[in-house]
């Protein structure tokens, strides 16, 4: 029977070849790969096959479930942060995506902003990075930074407050 | 503007003849311009590095094209709808990302690319420098404007890596691999670096700027000592000098195909392809982040492109940003 790694290898080979369609049958399990017009691989039949072999894929769903757990644990932390700062008059600069919070452009540079700095709409306050995609976050509001809620290098959640602005 | 397109058309005519002569008469008839104008354009092409042979009663033919990545060179035979159809080329720049950033703010159309022969301050991750010597590589930034939520944008960095690996394979036969999230390696050494920047306003993407640094014709001796052990070029791996414009065209074509598929059907196909080219999966890795080092087995990626690392105790960590070292 085919292992996940072998299926990946097959996908790669088919993708690189001029073959449009490929089918493999062995002891009742079937792998069929088909490129459509814009040269993509249809993977649905692979999934079907994966389902018939619970032993080999047992390790695969586990990380997914675990990752869900960590994902659900995170909002709880977020709420704590929000509870701590209940002053409604303060504006919160929030993270538009999940990723790593960087307070400065490079490790030996100064922070973009520190407590007490005044910012305007277009001031860059930090960078959020995920998968080497860098997102320079602008304050989008005019005021003074009164609190930095996260540490340099910390993983932040979607919508997590990063700064409080007065 | 008119003069540029005239030169471009002439270049297409001459190139289409594959080394055969094209008469001045024919050029002048097809393009509706005078002999003097033709001569002027031929002179310009020569200045750009084309070798054009002119023989009386026969006409003109191109005997050698420059290994440059000017807009003319790249556009010739480019088979895309948007990507690379608008090219901003400069001989020397600080970094193509910097220029692309400004252009993206100025509402240039999606698919606009910025290329240069040389970057004096090529950007790497976390303020690191990217060695970008003159005429040896492809230093390019692609401007995309996808209508997707900003939190999905990181998927595009994996997409770009797949596009580049496919293009390299088709153009050179060299089999490259991807190290999470999007370093492209050949025989374990880095050949392409990709860095992406997002311009977003609240919940809307203004642009995604994908910067690629590709070591194409760099010779082994040209790499500085500190990166010699970790970097390679396609020329070293393929054993021959490569045409950069032709490789760039392939990259634009492959990337656009994947991008269209992605916009239409989502990340699934790109993810499968990424996994099939991934070198780190199933291996023991070290993930270095600002806050420390995590070690374990790379188990896979999530639907967002996040790396799943299983440590000795069996705990799964989600890695969003790190330098990965394969042990």
Automatic annotation (TrEMBL), chain A:
Residues 43-65 have a biased composition (Low complexity). Residues 77-90 have a biased composition (Basic and acidic residues). This protein is a component of the acetyl coenzyme A carboxylase complex; first, biotin carboxylase catalyzes the carboxylation of the carrier protein and then the transcarboxylase transfers the carboxyl group to form malonyl-CoA. One of its GO terms (cellular component) is acetyl-CoA carboxylase complex. Pathway: Lipid metabolism; fatty acid biosynthesis. Pfam families: Biotin_lipoyl. Residues 43-90 are annotated as: Disordered. This is Biotin carboxyl carrier protein of acetyl-CoA carboxylase. The keyword Lipid metabolism applies. Keywords: Biotin, Fatty acid biosynthesis, Fatty acid metabolism, Lipid biosynthesis, Lipid metabolism. Residues 90-166 form the Lipoyl-binding domain. NCBIfam families: BCCP. CDD domains: biotinyl_domain (cd06850). It comes from the Bacteria.
From TrEMBL, chain B:
Keywords: ATP-binding, Biotin, DNA-binding, Ligase, Nucleotide-binding, Repressor, Transcription, Transcription regulation. One of its GO terms (biological process) is regulation of DNA-templated transcription. InterPro entries: aa-tRNA-synth_II/BPL/LPL, Bifunct_BirA, Biotin_CoA_COase_ligase, BPL_C, BPL_LPL_catalytic, HTH_11, Transcriptional_repressor_C, WH-like_DNA-bd_sf. One of its GO terms (cellular component) is cytoplasm. Residues 24-43 bind DNA. Residues 72-263 form the BPL/LPL catalytic domain. It is an enzyme of class 6 (ligase). GO terms for molecular function: ATP binding; biotin--[biotin carboxyl-carrier protein] ligase activity; DNA binding; transferase activity. Belongs to the biotin--protein ligase family. Acts both as a biotin--[acetyl-CoA-carboxylase] ligase and a repressor. This is Bifunctional ligase/repressor BirA. It comes from Exobacillus caeni. The lineage of its organism: Bacteria, Bacillati, Bacillota, Bacilli, Bacillales.
């Amino acid at each position: 029977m085919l292992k996940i790694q072998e299926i990946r290898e097959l996908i790669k080979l088919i993708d690189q070849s001029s073959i449009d369609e490929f089918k493999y049958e062995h002891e009742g399990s079937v792998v069929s790969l088909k490129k459509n017009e814009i040269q993509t691989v249809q993977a649905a039949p692979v999934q079907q096959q994966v389902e018939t072999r619970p032993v080999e894929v047992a390790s695969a769903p586990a990380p997914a479930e675990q990752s869900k757990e960590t994902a659900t644990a995170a909002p709880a932390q977020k709420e704590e942060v929000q509870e701590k700062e209940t002053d409604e008059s303060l504006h919160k600069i929030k993270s538009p995506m999940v990723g790593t919070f960087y307070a400065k452009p490079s490790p030996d540079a100064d922070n973009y902003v520190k407590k007490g700095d005044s910012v305007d709409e277009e001031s860059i306050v930090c960078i959020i990075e995920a998968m080497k995609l860098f997102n320079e976050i602008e304050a989008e509001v005019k005021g003074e930074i009164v609190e930095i809620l996260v540490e340099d290098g910390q993983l932040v959640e979607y919508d997590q407050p990063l700064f409080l602005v007065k | 503007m008119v003069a540029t397109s005239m030169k471009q058309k002439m270049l297409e005519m001459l190139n289409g003849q594959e080394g055969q002569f094209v008469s001045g008469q024919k050029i002048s008839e097809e393009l509706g311009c005078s002999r003097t104008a033709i001569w002027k354009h031929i002179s310009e092409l020569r200045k750009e590095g084309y070798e054009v042979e002119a023989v009386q009663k026969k006409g003109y033919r191109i005997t050698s094209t420059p290994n440059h990545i000017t807009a003319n060179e790249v556009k010739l035979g480019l088979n895309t709808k948007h990507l690379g159809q608008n090219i901003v080329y400069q001989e020397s720049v600080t970094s193509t990302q910097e220029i692309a950033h400004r252009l993206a703010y100025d509402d240039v159309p999606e698919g606009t690319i910025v290329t240069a022969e040389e970057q004096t301050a090529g950007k790497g991750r976390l303020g690191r420098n990217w060695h970008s010597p003159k005429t040896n590589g492809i230093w390019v930034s692609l401007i995309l404007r996808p209508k997707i939520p900003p939190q999905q944008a990181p998927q595009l960095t994996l997409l770009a890596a797949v596009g580049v690996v496919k293009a390299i394979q088709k153009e050179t036969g060299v089999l490259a691999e991807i190290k999470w999230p999007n370093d492209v390696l050949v025989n374990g050494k880095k050949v392409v670096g990709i860095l992406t920047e997002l311009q977003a306003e609240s919940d809307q993407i203004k642009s995604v700027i994908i910067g690629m640094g590709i070591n194409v014709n760099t010779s082994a001796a040209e790499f500085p000592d500190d990166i010699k052990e970790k970097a390679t070029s396609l020329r070293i791996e393929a054993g021959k000098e490569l045409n950069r414009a032709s490789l760039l065209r392939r990259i634009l074509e492959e990337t656009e195909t994947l991008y269209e598929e992605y916009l239409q059907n989502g990340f699934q196909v790109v993810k499968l392809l990424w996994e099939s080219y991934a070198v780190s999966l199933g291996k023991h890795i070290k993930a270095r982040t600002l806050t420390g080092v995590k070690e374990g087995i790379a188990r896979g990626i999530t639907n967002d492109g996040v790396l799943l690392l299983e440590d000795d105790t069996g705990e799964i960590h989600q890695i969003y940003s790190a330098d990965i070292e394969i042990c």
